[in-house]
Amino acid sequence: MLPKNLLKYNPKLFARGKRGLIYTFKKNKKTIAIKIKNPESKAENRIQNEINFLKILNKHKIGPRIIEIGEDYFCYEFIKGETLKDFLKNKKNYKKVLENIMHQCEIMDELKINKEEMHKPLKNIIIKNKIPVIIDFERCHFTSRPKNVNQFKEFLRRINLE
Fold it and tell me: What is the DSSP letter of 17?
């Protein structure tokens, strides 16, 4: 359920995922996204989990920047761009973008954070002005053996870009 204090901005549904719903609204000429739990999801504490990991990752310039945190939601700067899937269709000037994504994966591995979805990141990375922003950290967890770099390398091998 959307928080009452944000209803005045008239949020519109932007995306529906298995575990979360994303709404967007304008505030001070900026587009803001709000993520809440999908009421149909049985997953527990996914919003709080994502908040916890974004707090850590934002310090390393990874993920969308959190703007506001509530009990069952968080707001972040909306990343207007194209998905990695659409970006790679162009097949030009992608090397620096992929290097940047790999660098972010290396940082997450150093932090012992596993995102769990770097082997299929086509929808979980938004490219804005040739800068990739990884999104969707609800499944993140700490592990002694993170696999972000290996998963992303496997993805690159599969699509034949490495």
Answer: -
